[in-house]
Design a protein that fits this description.
Blueprint: E1 10-14, H1 18-24, H2 29-49, E2 54-61, H3 69-82, H4 85-93, E3 96-101, H5 109-122, E4 128-136, H6 138-151, H7 161-165, E5 178-181, E6 200-203, H8 213-225
Helix pairs in contact: 1-2, 2-3, 3-5, 4-5
Length: 232
């Protein structure tokens, strides 16, 4: 059995259910996203306090571009707020490194600029990593890794799994130990497709804005009780 106090080194979260939360309360969808952002900030603090070193969150998928122009615009503005100087300076004080992964080139210029500034400011921090997955898709990440490998003229005969891992957007990071998804959905939806091959999965019925520290503790307790054999 796993040790009781075992905490995942790398936790991934699929923050699902903002829109359903808003509809259930008779609120505008955009308010659901605002509350979801507030919850993300809370959960980040809980994770650091519990000793989690890498936190990866699915903030905006490649499929999310298909939503209405109003909703996409609002989400982009929320993301600008998430990586604003004020927020990033807080991360920097905590020693957290910001790493944004996904199709950065598709993002609005002001968001790209804020991301670049945030990543540069925090690049040498060693206390932890926050991976924000924005315009992210797991298959797209693998395709981009293949392109990099081809550009490097790596001999296919000497390619290994490590070769692929070294060319992913998460290069150099440990794979996620645990993935939490809220809102009752039981799939990964392209979240860290390569990296989650042996991740433990934990599903929560609550919508993301209703997620509590007690819910996080339950997920961590379930993880600690599992026996991770990795096929052995």
């Amino acid at each position: 059995m796993a040790e009781e106090n075992k905490v995942p080194y790398h936790l991934g979260i699929i923050m699902d259910g903002n829109r359903r939360w808003a509809r259930a309360k008779g609120l505008p969808i955009l308010e659901g996203h605002r509350q979801g952002y507030n919850k993300f900030k809370e959960v980040g603090k809980w994770c650091k306090a519990k000793g989690i070193k890498i936190l990866s969150v699915f903030a905006f998928s490649t499929e999310n571009w298909k939503r209405t122009e109003e909703e996409v615009s609002y989400l982009m503005n929320l993301l600008v707020e998430a990586v604003s100087r004020k927020e990033i300076e807080e991360l920097h004080k905590e020693g957290i490194k910001l790493n944004v992964i996904g199709e950065k080139e598709r993002l609005p210029e002001n968001l790209q600029k804020a991301i670049q500034e945030g990543e540069e400011l925090t690049q040498d921090n060693k206390e932890g990593i926050l991976n924000l997955c924005i315009s992210y898709g797991g298959r797209r990440e693998i395709v981009e890794a293949i392109k990099k490998i081809i550009e490097k003229n790596i001999d296919p005969q000497v390619m290994t799994e490590e070769t692929v891992a070294e060319n992913l957007w998460t290069a150099g990071q440990a794979d996620p130990d645990l993935i939490i998804r809220t809102s009752g959905e039981k799939r990964l939806s392209g979240f860290l497709t390569w990296q989650t091959a042996y991740s433990e999965l934990y599903f929560v019925e609550k919508h993301w804005p209703d997620f509590t520290e007690e819910d996080l503790d339950k997920a961590l307790a379930a993880y600690a009780a599992r026996d991770r054999r990795f096929g052995k």
